[in-house]
Amino acid sequence: MFGDRAAKAEAYRDLLASAGVERGLIGPREVPRLWDRHVLNCAYLGEVIEKGASVIDIGSGAGLPGIPLALARPDVQVRLVEPLERRYTFLREAITELDLRDQVAVARGRAEDVRGEFSASVVTARAVAPLATLYGWALPLVVTGGHLIAIKGRSASDEIAAAAETLQAMGITEAPEVLRVGPDEESGTTVVRVARGHGALRSAAAPAALKRRPPRSRRR
Q: Could you tell me which of 43, 61, 143, 147 has the fewest CB atoms within 10 Å of its CB?
């Protein structure tokens, strides 16, 4: 999976188990399954990303899936986008410690904050939001002809159905795909891949629950 970067992948796993837990980015109960459930689970995305792609990973948190993807695919350029300061700080430190500064960058903010500033052929997300919300955050960052690739669970098809009207409202006509990546059904990863297409992208109305939510203040 990681080739000559296997040692870096192990170093990243160790960072998650130490600083990641200490700073509240990873739950202590996740430590025994960091390798399979988190690092490899995210690295499998490389199977469905074209060679030389540019990637924006929104809501990157502790660097998942962006850092494992970068380690497994040295040919892609990855930008991590994370709004919370303590996570942003951890990501900067991890990039430096893993010597990934030539391949991985990090920006502090939400997906909405970097719209118009950054774009990529692929936008990735893991445990960020339901698809109906994620579409509005992620698809404006995808260049025409690119894809949104979201890690989802076994209920991916149900999420797609629930978000169908949102996707239609945004002018996306191609149906999302549910793909299984990885070595087998037991240890693989379920992803939803959405083609951005080449037509104009429209803004979808925000769900009512989101409209009622007061805006968050951003720490500087």
A: 143
**Domain housing 88:** 3-195
Q: What is the pLDDT of residue 205?
A: 52
Residue 216 marked ligand-binding? no
Q: Is 153 annotated as contributing to ligand binding?
A: no
CA 188 to chain centre: 17
In the chain, the number of structural domains is 1
Residue 164 lies in a domain: yes
- Which neighbouring-strand residues pair with 115? 118
Within a domain: 207: no
Kindly state whether residue 68 falls inside one of the protein's structural domains.
yes
**Torsional class of 197: left (φ above 0), alpha (ψ -120 to 50), beta (otherwise):** left
Mean pLDDT in consecutive groups of 10 residues from the start of the chain, 220 residues: 95 97 94 93 95 97 97 98 96 97 97 94 95 95 97 92 94 94 84 93 57 42
